[in-house]
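--- STAGE predict ---
source: upstream dedup step, 1 unique chain passed
mode: sequence only
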Amino acid sequence: MFIWAFAAEAGIIVRQARELGLTIPIYGGAGIATPLFTKAVGSLGKGIVAAYVMPDLPESSNVPAIVHYRDALKKKYAGALPPGRPNEYDLSGYAALKIFATALAKAGDSPTRESLIAALETLKDFDSGVTFPVTYTSTKHEGTDQTALLKVGDSGVWEMLGEGK
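--- STAGE serialize ---
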């Protein structure tokens, strides 16, 4: 079964499917690949596989840029992070800002839409430190086509399938 939903809704679907006795493999899109999903499904999530748009898990990574970001987030929310944080959405926004700032600096003193696009199109294998490297061209605006896979392990949390960054 493939679930294309966000974490909360996917948690309900998985719980109900398992309660109904469905034991078939379950796969999910990147929207379920957050700590909120595993918290919602508990042991019923074991074995579920999901696409993941990051090369590493933000809540447990040892990658220096991710550790720096996680520490900054903990400092901002002293005492306790908001539920499910940090997550891939946090890191995506952080990476997008780093990409945008780099392109903006290359776009000149009076940037225009055209100069910003041209500057973005000079980024080749740009490493934000937290995402897969991005490359933009006049015909490729996605930045990357890389993805990773996660699986809910025996401990009930997401684990990388294969190696992360």
